[in-house]
Description:
Blueprint: H1 2-6, H2 11-38, H3 59-66, H4 69-72, H5 87-100, E1 105-109, H6 110-122, H7 126-134, E2 138-142, H8 151-163
Parallel strand pairs: 1-2
Amino acid sequence: MSYAREKSLSYLDFLTLLLENEHNNRSENSYRKRYSKAKLPAQKLIEDFDFSFQPSVDKRTINDCSTCQFVNSRGNIVFIGNLGTGKTHLAIGITMKALSKGYKVLFTPVAQMLRELTFGRADNSYYQKLDYYLKPDLLILDELRFKKLPVYSADGIRDYCQTA
């Protein structure tokens, strides 16, 4: 209140400042919470990706992905390439863009997810863990390496998706 008097602010201007401050605080807190839940292994930005090092990566396509339009349309993005080509960097960069747009994201290595789901079968928390992976707006699966999924993992996920 002393700030308002000191700056000779009208009641409306002072209320506007208070509301803007509250909105900014809530937005920052929401972002921090979503960032923490995303479980990112590092913080990498699309802007830091060296497209000259990987000329086969189309910058325009990556910028399109950065808009996160595919999330609303329930689309998928698959990065395919050799080790060290920047797939994880790009996935983290897109995750950062999605977080900044208010999406809930989870980043997980495939092996870790399958391990958690397998343990979930043993302790009867399978559907709870499966829901954990399917609940975010965007799920980033890292290190897929095109390995064949174990039958028990693929069957359980298919069964869950059919009942959900």
